[in-house]
Specification:
Catalytic activity: GTP + H2O = GDP + phosphate + H(+)
Shape: globular
Largest sheet: 7 strands, parallel
Number of domains: 2
Protein name: GTP-binding protein
InterPro entries: CobW-likC_sf, CobW-like_C, CobW/HypB/UreG_nucleotide-bd, P-loop_NTPase, Zinc-reg_GTPase_activator
Pfam families: cobW, CobW_C
Number of strands: 12
Strand order of the largest sheet: 3-2-4-1-5-6-7
GO molecular function: hydrolase activity; nucleotide binding
Length: about 325
Amino acid sequence: MDARVPVIVINGFLGSGKTTLLKSLIKETKEKGLKASVLINEFGKNDTDGQIVSPEINSKDIETIVDGCICCTKKSEVVYSLEKLLRKSPDVIFVESTGVANPEEIVDAFSNREIISKLFLSKMVTMIDAQQLLEQNILLDKKLQNTVETQMIAADLLIVNKIDLIDKTSKPEIITDIRENNERGKIIFTTYSTFDYKYIFESVTNKTKSLTSLFDRDSQHGNLSYTSLATITLPAPNNLNEEKFKSFLLSLHPNLLRAKGYVGLQDKNGLFLLQHVKNNTVFQKVEYHKETYLTFIGIDLDAKQIYEGINSLQNQNS
């Protein structure tokens, strides 16, 4: 019997629903009587996604790599993090990549001789934002567009998420776009990353996939998954006007791809988890007791514009 630990990688562009899926998979793992460990890679300096999933799993079973991508600049941390998780004797390891990770490079990072004998790639899942796929013009950078396409090429399972935000008649167009990049992967349409998770867990017992045979085309190791993509993190005011802040976020488009963090809102008690993707901004009340902050992810972001904008919003409310 193969004693190696299965690894399930969750890819997908910024804001596609990876963390929501990860949270659900952790719950499903517990219901199946299995133990999960998690490796989360945050492109920004703060561990927002780790905070989101932490209520579902012991903190000792989570490793987080921040401020860079495990597929390139953070490869040296991957082995150390996976070794720590393997010592916890998990039944499965979930890996949530950054929104701009190149799957080829992720696989390369996992191919280190120190760990390849201890784990195997069980499933490569790619989350796809349905609205984002239909409006690909928001991806101003060609290398980012190539990364999205590579994420689709690599997937065993393609989850088209947020279909409640598109016209139902758009499904054939989405399928055509996906099939141009991936002819074999299973496609599932969903909302809130909810579907029959058997399509993921059935692979946990299938220990045949090779880390070195995932791709049928020439490898492009060495090419970074992003070029002009950057993150800006700053302290968040505790009294933001919700509507004015939404307008401010929209004013940063099309360069702003994603914003997240923990903020306080005017005339509302407690703190809120901010999730912003394209035109959609959601504030979810949460139990959070650390310093508030905002992280902006985008292409050629103007740091001065963002800092001045947040300061202006704060001054208007003071």
